[in-house]
Design a protein that fits this description.
globular, Rossmann fold, about 15% strand, alpha/beta, 13 helices, about 300 residues, four-stranded parallel beta sheet, 9 strands
């Protein structure tokens, strides 16, 4: 695999191989301390970042590589020069690139012209590194993913799109609850439903958050107003009022339900303090796992999963 762009490039065996590799890295990090020895990995981010930036930078360093951060304002993808020319130039300096962009097409154009591995660190369409970390976090706690009911409640955004793809590949039961008009990407939904027939996944959609939460083993939410959607803030807050993860919604779920949130959280909007800080929440373990899963992704890219 040359690039890490979308989970749809994976089969279930590939995802479980990365899960197993993640666990090995987590248990014995020193064994993997030279995976990126002598490698220089660039991080080119158009969007602000905390977890993605820090976890990738630390992960690269722990794998023996060197991380170089480039801001979107400095590089100005597609403005000072074409995306293709930037990709060709950086391919001569670096050994890998982690890209965080607004437009998914920018990422695709960069990867098309890159001679080095490109990792999707988030686009408006997809966030596969986040989704893979989330699925690993669920797997770490629950093991048999096919026996679980996962409810994604909130905005059908890039994280939701990637969770749908991953859940479908792994044959999971996923219910996506959004307000009308805020459903996941139509093309991805069509692809996922087509693939679900082969993987025996059950992917359902509803506008009723209580229906989605009922008997769920996992409740997942994200912000109602993602980066780039700030002008829609008032309309979104009004549309999403019933989609808050709170104690009433949590009571509808299974007693041992896990609560996930990819962060940053707007406390008091999509999730309440008592839930995100409560006994069912594994939100900060979920955030920590970004480090281990992304180290596994880089190991997979540069070593084919073999040490």
């Amino acid at each position: 695999m040359k690039h890490f762009i979308s989970l749809k490039e994976f089969k279930d065996k590939d995802i479980y191989a990365i899960f197993n590799l993640t666990q090995k890295i987590k248990n014995n990090p020193s064994k993997f301390s030279k995976v990126l020895s002598g490698k220089h990995i660039g991080l080119l981010f158009e969007k602000p970042s905390l977890r993605t930036k820090v976890s990738f930078q630390v992960g690269i360093n722990q794998l023996g590589g060197m991380a170089l951060y480039l801001s979107g304002r400095e590089v100005q993808l597609g403005e000072r020069e074409t995306v293709a020319d930037i990709a060709r130039t950086l391919s001569g300096y670096l050994d890998g690139m982690i890209l965080r962009t607004f437009s998914h097409n920018t990422l695709l154009e960069f990867a098309k012209n890159s001679q080095i591995p490109v990792v999707n660190g988030l686009t408006d369409l997809l966030h596969p590194a986040q989704a893979l970390s989330d699925l690993y976090t669920i797997y770490e706690r629950k093991k048999n993913l096919k026996k679980l009911k996962v409810a994604f409640i909130g905005d059908g955004n890039n994280v939701c799109n990637s969770i749908m793809i991953g859940a479908c590949i792994l044959g999971m039961n996923l219910v996506v609850a959004t307000p009308p008009g805020y459903e996941p990407n139509k093309n991805i939904t069509k692809e996922v439903l087509g693939l679900a027939e082969k993987t025996k996944a059950v992917i359902c959609f509803t506008n009723n958050p209580r229906q989605a939460a009922e008997d769920s083993d996992v409740l997942y939410t994200d912000v109602w107003v993602s980066m780039g959607k700030e002008k829609e803030q008032d309309a979104r807050k009004k549309a999403f009022r019933r989609f808050q993860i709170n104690s009433q919604i949590l009571k509808l779920a299974d007693k041992g339900c896990l609560v996930l949130h990819c962060l940053p959280a707007h406390r008091g909007e999509e999730i309440t303090d008592e839930v995100i800080d409560g006994k069912n929440s594994i939100v900060f373990k979920q955030a920590e796992n970004r480090l281990y899963v992304q180290k596994a992704i880089l190991t997979w890219l540069f070593k084919g999963g073999k040490i």
